Amino acid sequence: MSYGEIMLHLPVSKSNLSNWCKDIALTQKQKLRLIGNKQLGQRKGSIIAADNKRAARIERTKRIFLEAKNELGEITHRDKFIAGIALYSGEGNKTDGQAGFANSDPKLIKFMVKWFQTYCGIPLSKFHGAIWLHENLSEHEAKNFWSNLTQIPTSQFYKIYIAKNKTESKKIRKNIHKFGVFSISFGNSQQHRRIMGLIDGVLNH
């Protein structure tokens, strides 16, 4: 559908639609439908131009991504140590003696599980997991996903916290994470205080 057609069904602005849909690649059939639409026939050139602009942006993004990865060079043991401290300072539990880290990004969760094992000496048997999940998503799939990723047995998971969907809200959520937000925690107040000291050392060095 064109933005005009979509706006007949959804009470949103064209600028919001443009932002939400800017990276959606249309099939040839979809492009022909829009071009052939009598109301949008005059927009054939702008549709083609927008398509070219999108393709150029995707290629530019790929190039920047690869250049940035190459810029890092070799990642040392100390680099990973500092990276874990920085990540915990942003997403970790700061309550005294209560170590924990929560995120929806599987890469960050996997990195921090390894970091806790390597730099804090926490064995896998001491980890606990918790999941925050939107209703109507599969609890079984979420538990299996995070368990397979972290190697933490589901028997070490706390109960799943279900977030109710706000059906009365007109806000359209773009990112409802399929497997929810995962939290790692472990009961070691000494290591938690050590991590907080490391954070203070980095920020006030």
What's the helix and strand layout?
Elements: H1 3-7, H2 14-21, H3 28-36, H4 44-72, H5 77-91, E1 99-103, H6 106-120, E2 127-134, H7 139-150, E3 161-163, E4 181-186, H8 189-203
Parallel strand pairs: 2-3
Antiparallel strand pairs: 1-4, 2-4
Strand content: 5-15%
CATH architecture of the largest domain: 2-Layer Sandwich
Residues in helix, %: 40-55%
Number of helices: 8
Structural class: alpha+beta
Cα-to-Cα separation, first versus last residue: 55 Å
Give the overall silhouette: extended
What's the alpha carbon Rg, rounded to whole Å? 23 Å
Q: Can you tell me the CATH topology of the largest domain?
A: 60s Ribosomal Protein L30, Chain: A
Number of strands: 4
How would you describe the overall organization of this protein?
- The chain has 205 residues and is α+β, with helices and mostly antiparallel strands.
- The protein has two domains: 70 residues, no CATH class; 127 residues, 60s Ribosomal Protein L30, Chain: A (2-Layer Sandwich).
- The protein is built from eight helices and four strands, in the order αααααβαβαββα.
- Strands 1-4-2-3 form a four-stranded mixed β-sheet.
- β2, α7 and β3 form a beta-alpha-beta unit.
- The longest helix has 29 residues.
- The mean pLDDT is 88.
At a glance:
The protein has helices spanning 3-7, 14-21, 28-36, 44-72, 77-91, 106-120, 139-150, 189-203, and strands at 99-103, 127-134, 161-163, 181-186.
Structure characteristics:
single chain, four-stranded mixed β-sheet, 53% helix, 60s Ribosomal Protein L30, Chain: A, 205 residues, alpha+beta
